[in-house]
Design a protein that fits this description.
Distance between the termini of chain B: 50 Å
Number of strands of chain B: 8
Shape of chain A: globular
Largest sheet of chain B: 4 strands, antiparallel
Helix content of chain A: 55-70%
Structural class of chain A: mainly alpha
Number of helices of chain B: 5
Radius of gyration of chain B: 24 Å
Largest interface: A-B, 69 and 62 residues
Number of domains of chain A: 1
Oligomer: heterodimer
Number of domains of chain B: 1
Helix content of chain B: 10-25%
Radius of gyration of chain A: 20 Å
Structural class of chain B: alpha+beta
Strand content of chain B: 15-25%
Strand order of the largest sheet of chain B: 2-1-3-8
């Protein structure tokens, strides 16, 4: 699972100057041919920097994303749901591991990334700063947040950086179970009692605004976006991803007889695009900058885990092995 | 901190006021993991784990890479024990850059891994006997090279690899029974159909 809509840093005017024009042309030609870039290949500094940022954010989102669902494992209704949710949460943490490894191939150590998460320097998907009040919130995440993540991940798996693409291929294969499981949970709520239906409708009302935020604000088509798209770091605009998600899942939500809390939501049959009320981007910014309902708790849980696990790491530490950058 | 999650509320208080930067730990070593998905298929590179030693790396590798998909065996080796050839391009074969080496010292066995396509993962192709990794490459170019182009070659001393033994295989024997992790176990179609028909009336 993962929240897309990456926030990329603005490009500084001097960041592309100083690159060897011949190497840059070879690098771009390789991407143009559809080949992958490997860790030992030459790459522009900006490419490396933006990829580290993107893969790292993705990894943190997997780890933090396991928290709002993990909290429901002990309270999931029945043995089967508990088994499935436990397996799903275990997968998400595993995905975090795969992604940290991919980011490490670019030269940032895992410890630095974890430190940056805990001290608030690195971001993760904003949607996990909201709480899961009921079982239905958990089902919303399993089905629809995962669905949104898969839209993003399938696009990114066609990107240019080899280690990231390989991690994503593996992740997407595992995610297919999450999506089916999430839909299954929601079908059971939808066809259950009125109380169960109301419970999911309320969760849907709570989660719709963050779900619309999930893909990020409309991209301004800038030189920056163009370069990242040319280098196949960014595989589509945030609006394209959002539109694709709406296209695939709004009919499925309506089919179950639920309403979506946006009176303006409809597909424009001429353009083929979805129209909706513009999400509240002020709230998005406020929450991403730390002032959401769960930001503090999410980081605190990670920080405590780090602190309580420290003696174990100290005890296991040995000079006989050494950290080196992964190969591929 | 007041959370909806009772487990979070039960967490012990730690010193969150302590904002002093934490002392950097030496990071654990890096280990590369190779997975054999089915008997007779080659071992393929899957990724890495960090661990304080090879045995612990093996345990973590089982957890990280063989939880979900079929697996019959894995290899784990420390990254710094892997000898890496040049990574080539176009129709340039990595073996074109290998030259004859005179043997020096004691002979030992080396496992050879080929990268057949850029963007894919290294595959185990066999073992050779040599006195050092460069000589192993030279012998591999005589014994293991085929018509299929190779872009990169990894060489690992056989004694540096943690292989799988019989006792390690328990985890994989039960994989096919764990249906609750298959998308196929979540068929909601019939329930959905009944529901849709009922809501029409």
């Amino acid at each position: 699972m993962y929240g897309g809509g990456n926030t990329f840093e603005g490009i500084k005017s001097d960041e592309l100057t100083g690159e060897d024009p011949i190497k840059l042309a070879e690098f771009e030609a390789r991407i143009e041919r559809g080949e992958k870039i490997e860790p030992s290949d030459w790459m522009p500094k900006l490419y490396r920097k933006q990829l580290i940022r993107m893969i790292e954010q993705h990894a943190h989102s997997e780890i933090i994303g396991a928290l709002p669902e993990g909290t429901w494992i002990t309270r999931a209704p029945g043995f089967k749901r508990k088994m499935a949710l436990m397996a799903k949460v275990q997968d998400e943490v595993g995905h975090g591991q795969l992604l940290y490894s991919a980011a490490e191939t670019l030269g940032k150590s895992r410890e630095e990334m974890i430190d940056d998460l805990i001290n608030g320097k690195s971001k993760y998907s904003n949607i996990f700063n909201y709480p899961t009040f009921t079982w239905a919130d958990c089902c919303f995440i399993s089905w629809l947040v995962d669905a949104g993540a898969i839209v993003n991940q399938l696009a990114n798996a066609k990107g240019s950086y080899g280690p990231y693409c390989r991690a994503l291929d593996r992740i997407c294969a595992e995610e297919s179970f999450h999506l089916k499981y999430g839909h299954h949970c929601v079908i059971y709520l939808a066809s259950g009692t009125q109380t169960q239906r109301d419970m999911f409708q309320e969760a849907l009302n709570r989660w719709w605004p963050p779900m619309m935020h999930f893909f990020g604000p409309s991209d301004k088509i800038s030189v920056h976006t163009e370069i990242l798209m040319k280098w196949k770091v960014k595989m589509g605009t945030n609006d394209d991803m959002r539109n694709q998600f709406l296209d695939m899942y709004v009919p499925k939500i309506w089919e179950l007889g639920f309403t979506i809390p946006d009176p303006n939501l409809k597909k424009n049959t001429e353009t083929g695009r979805w129209e909706y009320t513009e999400p509240d981007w002020e709230e998005f910014k406020r929450v991403i900058n730390g002032d959401g309902p769960c930001n503090k708790e999410r980081l605190e849980v990670r920080r405590i885990a780090e602190e309580r696990g420290r003696w174990v790491r100290e005890a296991l530490r040995t000079p006989k092995t050494a950290y080196v950058t992964p190969l591929a | 901190m007041k959370s909806l999650d009772p487990r979070v509320n039960r967490l012990p208080k730690t010193d969150s006021a302590n904002t002093a930067p934490k002392v950097p730990l030496d990071q654990f070593g890096t280990f590369e993991v190779f997975v054999q998905p089915k008997a007779g298929k080659p071992f393929q590179h899957e990724g890495i784990v960090h661990a304080p030693n090879l045995e612990m790396a093996y345990v973590l590798a089982k957890e990280a890479f063989t939880r979900r998909f079929t697996c019959v065996s894995i290899y784990v080796a420390e990254t710094r024990n892997i000898h890496i050839s040049v990574l080539t391009d176009g129709d340039d074969d990595a073996y074109n850059h290998v030259s004859e080496v005179t043997p020096e010292g004691e002979k030992t066995s080396f496992e050879i891994f080929h990268l057949f396509k850029r963007g894919k993962q290294h595959q185990h192709v066999g073992a050779v006997v040599a006195t050092n990794p460069n000589e192993a490459l030279w012998i591999a170019s005589q014994e293991l090279r085929t018509d299929k182009q190779v872009f990169n070659i990894w060489t690992i001393r056989t004694s540096d690899i943690r292989f799988t033994n019989q006792d390690d295989m328990d985890l994989w024997l039960t994989l096919p029974e764990k249906k609750f992790r298959d998308a196929a176990a979540y068929k909601g179609g019939d329930k959905l159909k009944t529901f849709l028909e009922a809501s029409k009336n």
